[in-house]
Amino acid sequence: MNTPRRADAPRSRPPASRTGGALDRSLGRLPDPAEEVDDRGLTPTARTALAGLPPSLAALGHRFARAGHELALVGGPVRDAFLGAVPHDLDCTTSAPPEVTEEILSGWADACWDIGRDFGTIGARKGDDVVEVTTYRTEAYEVGSRKPAVAYGDSLVGDLSRRDFTVNAMALRLPDLELVDPHGGLEDLRSGVLRTPASAVQSFDDDPLRIMRAARFAAQLGFDVEPDVMEAMEAMAGRLEIVSAERVRAELERLLLSPWPRRGLELMVHTGVADVVLPEVSALRETVDEHRRHKDVYEHTLTVLDQAIALETGPDGPVPGPDLRLRLAALLHDIGKPATRRFMPGGTVTFHGHDHVGARMTARRMRALRFDKQTTKDVARLVELHLRFHGYADAGWSDSAVRRYVTDAGPLLERLHRLTRADVTTRNRRKARMLDAAYDDLEERIAALRQAEELAAIRPELDGAQIMAELDLAPGPVVGEAYRFLLDLRMEKGPIGQDLARQALRSWWAARGE
């Protein structure tokens, strides 16, 4: 979470904004402006979506009203209803303090728990439905603090005014589902634009994580961003330093798993937010070569990400989308290039070793963002292996080399297939067809070998106990050496049977002179 952007760092082209053209409505995400609203402020689309709410939610609204308090569905569920999606996250806000909220919920729910009393949030479950209720509040980060200071508010309108964006600053009073929209969120939703209820500078100063949320919602909703929001993101990107790495990572994950991650990433790079969160991606712009001796690595990376996403499968396929590991690997696969770029005699450019350098850089950045160990290991491994196939394209591999490719990829093989295919962005159609055909051939050979040898579970013909019995050894490092010898033999020769494996093992042992 460091490495601020240099003042002279090149800028990428800006993403779509209010000045850059409206969102293409063919995406099918925007409410129809022609839809009329009823006396509660609801459109036909919203009424249809809200019909899917559990009846118990209205009953809960009546309970709060009888206790003299307000209750409203708020934020994302309201936004999604106007987009035609049945709300699943039942996030509510109330005038009741947390202790009263807990008392009311306890008489309604099958189970009730304290999610974050310091933040005024109580959770409850009624049947299969889970609701979270938060007391009206305001919050802001203190200077130097990584945690927001919370103060309870006294009105629904006041609570909505502290929300991140107008499209999330709408509420539906319960039990009647009456729309409360003091900041024009529905109109912004219809226009496909992200705007803040207060000034963008004030909003981001109150909670710097909203800078990341702007990029995430641009990717999630496909929305444009108001120019003042983009300007505030650029001016205040450094404020993200006070936000915990875990919270930043969570927003980055949501962005990458969104329908249009490229949109959010371009916004991050253009505003300098990526200089703080993903400086290695920002640095790809530095490889732009005005003499066109090699491709634009930054644009290539975004294209690889798009193509990798297009290769994800449905839920029953080998790589169900959205797949975080594949998308991270596509985004980070070339981050080793700036450090390895060399200009050669004759005007050529090389990036030798960028796969291994990039794998180390990937692991460092993911650890800094507090990704879990397995995801970090998997993504770094994909980055390390993403160039391996090119040796096959240049010259056919032996069966041994194919086995090693599969073994080195392990459970990441299907993701590696897609990353490698997505990495082809050449405009030379003949070269693209050649690479595609070569990879088709490699996959066919892998399938044939797997069928013949159960390649996914390659092991030597003799296990550790058999090795010790054959050579009369006690457990120790030498057994591991013998095991690796037999594994290499298995890779090289394929299945040879236990008798030949024993002969080879004895020959190896004799050659050691022991």
Automatic annotation (TrEMBL):
Coiled coil feature spans: 432-459
Claim: tRNA processing is one of the keywords in the record: yes
Any one GO molecular function term: metal ion binding
Stretches the record annotates as Disordered: 1-41
Keywords (A to Z) from UniProt: ATP-binding, Coiled coil, Magnesium, Metal-binding, Nucleotide-binding, Nucleotidyltransferase, RNA repair, RNA-binding, Transferase, tRNA processing
Pfam families, per the entry: HD, PolyA_pol, PolyA_pol_RNAbd
Cofactor: Mg(2+)
InterPro entries referenced in this protein's UniProt entry, alphabetically: HD/PDEase_dom, HD_domain, HDIG_dom, NT_sf, PolA_pol_head_dom, PolyA_RNA-bd, tRNA_adenylyltransferase, tRNA_CCA-adding_enzyme
Basic and acidic residues: compositionally biased ranges: 1-11
Domain of life of the source: Bacteria
Domain HD: 297-449
Record carries keyword Hydrolase: no
GO BP of this protein: RNA repair; tRNA processing
EC number: 2.7.7.72
Protein name: CCA-adding enzyme
Species in which this protein is naturally found: Actinomyces howellii
